[in-house]
Design a protein that fits this description.
With 504 residues, the protein is an alpha/beta fold. Helices cover 29% and strands 21% of the residues. It has 15 helices and 19 strands. A hairpin with a 4-residue loop joins strand 16 and strand 17.
């Protein structure tokens, strides 16, 4: 009888977890569609857990941490697309519907949303905020909602208002995606235990070249040190968001978030003071973020035989697919074709017609084709490429470096063309992730064998090529992801905006 009167044990807390990630570049001419998400894997329910497991991603870290803490994680959605242009309205409606419907069916006690923070859709310049607001409408005002962001997020007041807590990566190059998911899960569990959470936001009207945002280097290193020093007591997390600068949207700027707990009246004051202090430090050091790119011809002249020291990296960040550019600018390939020293160099370019012609010729066949400027012809012209098809193939690249470890990236069909003069060009239907050597190795091209390799990346390559290159040269080129903001035209961003404008 006594046993019958005992209260039933409390059930584990149900925590819904969803990930919708795409970094939009509003200067890219190519719209992002639902096909871009399905190509990389659009997973719902248990499939989102199964296919993400073991990867260095936010959703994998969150699901593992929640289960390990005794909660019941409820995976809703994992949608990831390569960075690109503005998301179509139809695609955004589908993704929002999957999130809302999944959350409504989950009967969750709380939710964790892993979002990039720089998603722009047709008619919605702050698409991540719209997703958070939609989730809040389903959850109601009392159930905890925590949001994780990429360090390049454009954090908005709308997100901070709709979420209990907002936090981001602490590293760039990004190697702490899984850890960020775990930190987000820990905040959800604290909120479920009764702690009151909040996040304050401070912003400054400045853009920072991605090439100078590495957290290990000044000025970012000093800002991260200030953030770490401010963490403790009521302050649970301090995140820096130097923002990806190829967004022409309202509320654009460098952000600092401080997440706190405890009595809102006192904790918010402490957190607000910390956020403003660190944002002031970023503003005071803004000139230290300047970069000094090198003309392409000069960079090519700097290539010398590697002699076992690893390749020189030619950094074409102005056409970086992980920053939303189309990766079809062949300017560097043209310069390499004019170099007659026979140096071993690997390069890439997106060109679907060139892939088709190369695959038609077959392994060992000869091609004489034009490559480049098939998607974005504003910055460059096609160049003629003649050579022998070394290999062809299809299928995703499995990332093996420190960032996004274990994640597959679809590149479509591909072919490697050997010019016979040392240069080998990997042509692909979709952008290949050259920030990770796996992008070349997938096609049988080991960067360790080259004197130089072309990487279409601003800073992520530092993690992928750590310890296996002898230097990097930043190229001075226009493009949708250029570090030279004077090449771009900002019309919707708040002005004045440093360094585009002189700001007192």
């Amino acid at each position: 009888m006594g046993d019958a009167l005992m209260a039933a044990p409390a059930r584990p807390a149900r925590v819904a977890v969803a990930s919708v990630i795409q970094e939009t570049n509003t200067f890219s001419p190519r719209a992002t569609t639902l096909d871009d998400f399905t190509a990389q894997g659009l997973w719902t329910g248990a499939e989102a857990d199964r296919c993400s497991r073991g990867t260095n991603t936010e959703i994998a870290g969150a699901l593992t941490a929640l289960a390990g803490a005794g909660a019941e994680p409820v995976p809703l959605l994992r949608a990831w697309a390569m960075s690109g242009g503005t998301l179509t309205g139809d695609a955004f409606a589908v993704l929002r519907g999957l999130l809302v419907d999944g959350l409504a069916a989950a009967r969750a006690d709380a939710a964790l949303l892993c979002l990039h923070g720089a998603l722009v859709a047709d008619g919605e310049p702050a698409a991540d905020a719209a997703l958070v607001e939609a989730a809040r409408a389903v959850l109601g005002p009392d159930r905890p909602l925590v949001v994780t962001h990429d360090l390049h997020a454009n954090v908005t007041a709308r997100i901070v208002a709709a979420a209990d807590a907002v936090l981001g990566f602490h590293t760039y190059p990004h190697v702490d995606q899984g850890d960020t998911g775990r930190r987000g899960a820990a905040l959800v569990l604290r909120a479920l235990a009764g702690e009151r959470l909040g996040t304050v936001l401070a912003k400054r009207p400045m853009l920072v070249p991605a090439e100078s945002q590495a957290v290990a280097d000044p000025p970012m290193r000093r800002l991260r040190e200030l953030a770490d020093a401010a963490t403790g007591g009521d302050v649970l997390d301090v995140s820096l968001f130097p923002v990806q600068p190829w967004l022409d949207v309202p509320e654009l700027g460098f952000a600092v978030t401080v997440t706190h707990h405890g009595d809102p009246a006192t904790a918010r004051i402490t957190a607000g003071e910390a956020a403003e202090r660190i944002a002031d430090a970023a503003w005071a050091g803004r000139s230290g973020f300047a970069v000094h790119p090198v003309p392409v011809d000069e960079a090519v002249r700097r290539i010398t035989p590697a002699a076992g020291a690893g390749p020189l990296l030619l950094v074409q960040s102005a056409d970086s697919p992980t920053a939303g550019a189309t990766a079809d600018d062949a300017t560097v390939i043209g310069a390499l074709l004019h170099d007659d020293r026979g140096l071993r160099v690997y390069a890439t370019v997106v060109d679907a017609p060139a892939v088709a012609a190369s695959r038609a010729a077959g392994t060992g066949g000869r091609v004489d084709i034009e490559v480049g400027a098939t998607l974005d012809d504003r910055w460059s012209r096609p160049v003629r490429l003649a050579g022998t098809v070394r290999r062809t193939g299809a299928g995703p690249v499995l990332l093996t470096g420190a960032s996004m470890t274990g994640q597959p990236v679809a590149i479509g069909g591909w072919a490697s063309v050997d010019t016979g003069r040392g240069l080998v060009v990997l042509v692909t239907e979709r952008p290949v992730p050259t920030f990770d050597p796996a992008g070349y190795r997938h096609a049988g091209l080991d960067p360790a064998d080259a004197d130089a390799v072309l990487v279409r990346s601003a800073t992520m390559y530092r993690a992928g090529y750590q310890g296996c290159h002898r230097g990097a040269v930043l190229l001075d080129l226009p493009g949708a992801s250029t570090p030279r903001f004077d090449y771009l035209r900002f019309e919707r961003a708040p002005r004045p905006l440093y360094p585009i404008d002189e700001v007192p």
